[in-house]
From TrEMBL:
PROSITE patterns in alphabetical order: MIP
Pfam families reported for this sequence: MIP (PF00230)
GO molecular function, one term: urea transmembrane transporter activity
InterPro entries in the record: Aquaporin-like (IPR023271), Aquaporin_3 (IPR023275), MIP (IPR000425), MIP/Aquaporin (IPR050363), MIP_CS (IPR022357)
Record function comment: Aquaglyceroporins form homotetrameric transmembrane channels, with each monomer independently mediating glycerol and water transport across the plasma membrane along their osmotic gradient. Could also be permeable to urea. Also participates in cell permeability to H2O2 and H2O2-mediated signaling. In skin, transports glycerol to the epidermis and stratum corneum, where it maintains hydration, elasticity, and supports lipid biosynthesis for barrier repair. In kidney, contributes to the reabsorption of water, helping the body maintain proper fluid balance.
Organism: Certhia brachydactyla (short-toed tree-creeper)
UniProt protein name: Aquaporin-3
Sequence similarity: Belongs to the MIP/aquaporin (TC 1.A.8) family.
Amino acid sequence: MGTCSFLTRARGLLRIRNQLARECLGLRWGCIPLLQTITLSSAAQKVTFFETKGNLLTSYLGGALAVMVGIYTAGGISGAHMNPAFSLAMCLIEQFPWWKFPIYVVVQTLASFISAGAVYILYYDAIWHYSNGTLTVSGPQETASIFATYPADYVSIANGFLDQVIGTGVLMVGVMGLMDTRNKPVPKGLEPVVVALLVLSIECSMGANCGCPLNPARDFGPRLFTYLAGWGPEVFRWVEGRERGG
């Protein structure tokens, strides 16, 4: 009885009652860490093991399933706002308050940055072994693409921008359609599965040009991490025609 009473009091003291704080923690410790850690780890496993323990399909599948797990884990708390583009879309249709938007973007980016750090630690030995001790953004043994997406050699800035506008637009329209109760409803509880399949379909059909990031926080947070961790300022440059590795 004494132990139960102590645990009850401890839960009461540790409980966070502020709704915004709960939502931010849901993003920070629920949705995004799971999404990012699984997604980036899928890429790390593919790259650092020379595609012997993963390939493009497993990387896409890992990312899509990570979306599903993130929504199931913390969707009820934060609304599963794992993407600033989704948060912006919700603001535009007046389903989300504008004053929360910058707060969510900061939390989304910070969580992505920390998740990149976790993956770097997890695959630290593999990254340094694969890269022969040199962290590069281009070349046959580059490792920057584990954390952020980079364009194919032939893609111009204009084409890359349009690629992301279309891909993100398809994602937003698809999610909005799935959420619209006037459409054919998704069976209750299976919404995350259907969203994951939508993400997988976009990755499989629109991932060739730029790697299909579709998420500013998912791209910028890890890219900033690689800049600070030793890859250097080239992670922020768009260099057409550069040599890219696997």
